[in-house]
Design brief:
Elements (H helix, E strand, L loop, with lengths): L1 H39 L4 H33 L1
């Protein structure tokens, strides 16, 4: 039962780190885009550019975290 709970908490930690990673990547992209728009007076352009960069970075983070977990599970099963 203890090992089962440990695996559950590890899975929960992985999923929550994925969510936090996506939200932070998008949030940083939006903030950076809005800041550049304010500095240069190009209202929506940098916002949209860095929004899409933030979304791409969030999905890349999910890919990396999931790949790391898959490799860790494969190593522990051998």
């Amino acid at each position: 039962m203890t090992n089962n709970k440990r695996e559950l908490f590890q899975s929960l930690a992985m999923v929550s780190s994925m969510g936090i990673s996506v939200v932070l990547a998008i949030g940083i992209g939006v903030w950076f885009g809005l800041t550049l728009d304010r500095w240069f007076g190009t209202k929506p352009w940098f916002f949209y550019i860095f929004l899409f960069i933030g979304i791409a970075a969030g999905f890349k983070n999910i890919y990396l975290i999931a790949g790391r977990e898959i490799r860790r599970n494969d190593d522990s099963n051998q």
